[in-house]
Amino acid sequence: MATAATLEAPLRTIDPDEERAFMETIDRWLERDVIPVIKYHDHNDIWPEKLVEQMAEMGLFGATIGQEYGGLGLPATTYAKIVMRISSYWMAITGIFNSHLIMAAAVERFGTPQQKAKWLPKFATGEIRGGLALTEPNAGTDLQAIRTVARKDANGDYILNGTKTWISNALHGQCFALLAKTDPAAEPRYKGMSLFIADKREGLTTGKKFDKLGYKAIDSAELIMEDYRVPADQLIGGVEGQGFFQATGGLELGRINVAARGVGLAEGALRLATEYAQMRETMGKPIAQHQAIQLKLGEMVTRARAARLLTLDASEAYDRGERCDKEAGMAKYFASEAAVENSQEAMRIFGGYSYSKEYDIERYYRDSLLMCIGEGTNEMQRIIIAKQHLAENRI
Length: 395
Prior knowledge:
The protein is α+β, with helices and mostly antiparallel strands. It is 50% helix and 14% strand. The strands form three sheets. A four-stranded antiparallel β-sheet has the order 2-3-7-6, with helices on one face. The radius of gyration is 21 Å and the shape is globular.
């Protein structure tokens, strides 16, 4: 059975022509189906059911799942490019399949052969969709502070009680990789944590949906467990005490995804600002010809490019099967900050019009703020980066 200690990640590559063709398919979908409906779904916070069905048809719910389980088996580099492209127009919908794929990655990387055979084909097609259930009201970045408890009963099943919060796909998902304490008294605390395949059934209900500043149309809500019974064969890997490493291992892909979303937002904000600066005129010429605007655009171009290269660097390390928490942390930290800075500078280039919902740039700013918080705060990323750097450069 796979554990955090025995895991060997498969190396994945893709033919450049195949990748190009897939990206062209994404571009056509964005132009035809996504761009025309973004404002409607974002402004009204309405789940994009039709787009979700289309994403399933394109195989996005199986993007990084191995081909032997019915997925596309894409390398992280290609996956990151897909997320960048979609996010450059609408970031929120990438969260629908990203959270799902982190759940799938936990099963694929750490699950038993039986778990992989049962769950991954249904994850790959989108027949069963879901996400990652880690965060609790009093435990965000500090996962070891979770209070959800899983106790074995006389039949060998697990009975779970607790509350998860800010769970993506909580309303419309059917299954979650859920972290709970199987040994609350364990020291250190991480040794008492286990990860479960938690499908919706009696005892697992959805709590309140959060009304958010940005990241609209994707549901973020509570999951409540009240004597929720999980069969023993849904303990990922089949061994208790591995959950902390299984969950944090999946966050490498999650942070690469957030970094890719940051790149998309930074590049999208740059695109909008570049177009507007060449159309808007002051003092008898386009504002793009004013040095003050050129200074902003020069910084925005550089930030977007640097963010892209950092993200691809982390993706390539992931594809090689290397430990990449430092690389993923650097990419997530820099790209998310680039998203905020580029969207804010783009708003200044747009001037007063940026404050109107008639213009897309205000959405980029609202959505970008989440990237600095999601999948571990940027403050935590800097600590991870520093610790890894010091470990690699001991004197």
